[in-house]
Amino acid sequence: MQTADGRRNQAVSEWLEQAKADIDQWALVCPKDADGRPVDWQWVRSLDLVGGIGVGLDAVDNPQQNAHALLKRDYAVRDRVEAILAQTSTSFMTDFDRLVASYRLPRALAYANRRLNDEIDLLLDRGVADGLWQVRYERQGRATVPVLKAPAERPSNAADAGESSDGEDSVGLEEIQDRTAQILNARAERRKAQRIQRESGAAGMTRANLSGAASPGGAFASPPVPGNAASPAAKSSDWRDVYLPGRDVDTVMGVDIETTGTDPARAYIIDVGFEFMNMASPRPADATTAHIYEQPYYDAGDAYGQARLSFGVTKANARHGNALIRDLTGIDVRERGTGEYRLFDEWPEAQTGLLARLTQQPYVAHNATFEHNFFMLNVAGYAEAYRAGRVTIIDTLPMSRQWDPGSTPDENHPYGDNTLEAYAKRQGSLDPARAERHLGLEDAHIMLVAMKRHLADLKREGKGPWGAGGRPGVGGKACGRRRW
C-alpha cells in the first residue's frame, strides 16, 4: 500500500512530466530567451525535471568527482534555464491568441532550478571544505554573487580534489565564477537602450503630428498640468503608480511572504501571512478574528481572517543553511528540511487555498512585485488567473512614495524612505521604538493598518485617490478591469 509521502511524490512527478506537454506551444510564443538567443526547446524536453537537472547530489558528495567540473556544468545549466524563465512571463502575457493556456512549464522549470541552485550551494561548500577556494559574497550591480578566491593554502589531497600534477587547477577559478550579476547587468543595459530608442521614436512622432501645437522654439503652448512631474513640488511619476488604490477601495487582503532569497526561480517560500481588512465599511459582524500575532502589543483592530502558513525547504537547502534569513526572520532553514514542514511548491492544496483568497478581492502587499513574481512561479493557476483579469494588486510602496509627505528624499534615500518599517511608523501602525518583525502575518498587519490610516487622512484632505489625479474604482493593477 502506497504511503501518503509516496502519493505526494507521485503527484509531483506527474505534474512535472505533464508540464512538458506544453513545450510545442511555448516554442511558438517564446522562440528566444531573455538574452535574445534562440531557445532549444528540444534541450528543455530532455531535462529530467523529476530526477534533477544538475549533476546530482551523489556526485556532489563523491570526493572522486572533480568539484570544479561539476560546478561549471551546473552553472551552465542554470544560466540557460534562467534565461528562458526570464522571458516566459512576457511571452505568456503577450500571447494574445492564447496559444499557451497554462503556466505550468515555467513553474516546473523553476521547481527544478531551485533544486539545482541547492546543489550549486553545496558544491561551493564542498570546495571550501576541500580547500579548493574561498567564497566571498559581493554586490555587483543588480545582484549579490559568490566570488571564488584562491585559498590561502592548498590541501594535501589537491590532486584528488581537482588539481593537476603541475599545480594548476584542471578548471581555473575564472571559469567557474557565478555570472548572474554579469548577465543581469547586461540585460538591464539592453532594456535601457531599447527604452530610450522607443521613447525617442515616440517623441519624434509626436513632434511630427503636433508641430502646429508648439510655440516658437519647440515648446508646447499648453501649460503644464498641476501636480505632474513638471511641478517642482510634485513627486515624479513612477511605473509603480499603476498599483495605487482608487477612491472606492474597501475589502482587501493583506499578504506578506518570507523566502530564502529574492529570486523566485531559486528561493523557497517559507512563511506566508495574510489577513483581511475593510478600508471603508465596518468589519463584517460574522468575521472571525484570530489574534495570533507574535508580538503581544499588536492590536488586531479592524483586521479579521488572520492566518499564518509555515513551509519547509529541501534537505539540501537545509544542509547548506541560511544565516542571513535566520538573522532577519528568526527562521532557521536547517530546521525546515524535515517532514514536519511541507514544501510550498510541492503542496497543491496550499497553493489552491491561497489562490482562492488572492482572487476573491484585491490583495495588498508592500513592494507587491516581489510577492507577484513568487506567486507566478509557485502557485498553480495564479499566472492564468492574473492574465484573465481575476487578480487585482495594490501596493503600499507607491502610496508611501507618492502620497506620504514624510517620505522626503535624502542622501541615502533619493526617493524617500519607503520601506515598510518607515511607512508603518509614519502612519502610526508601528511603534517608533519597535522594528519590523519580518514575518508574514505581522508585516501584513502593520501594512494594512498603515494603509487604512493613510487613506482616511487622504480622504479628509482631498488628496491621493480623492485628489485631482485620483482614480475611481478600487484601483490597483489588473489585466483588464474587474468590478468588485
From TrEMBL:
Gene3D superfamilies: Ribonuclease H-like superfamily/Ribonuclease H. The lineage of its organism: Bacteria, Bacillati, Actinomycetota, Actinomycetes, Bifidobacteriales. InterPro entries: RNaseH-like_sf (IPR012337), RNaseH_sf (IPR036397). It comes from the Bacteria. It comes from Bifidobacterium eulemuris. This is DNA polymerase III subunit epsilon. Residues 146-172, 188-236, 462-484 are annotated as: Disordered. One of its GO terms (molecular function) is nucleic acid binding. Residues 163-172 have a biased composition (Acidic residues). Residues 464-478 have a biased composition (Gly residues). Residues 211-222 have a biased composition (Low complexity).
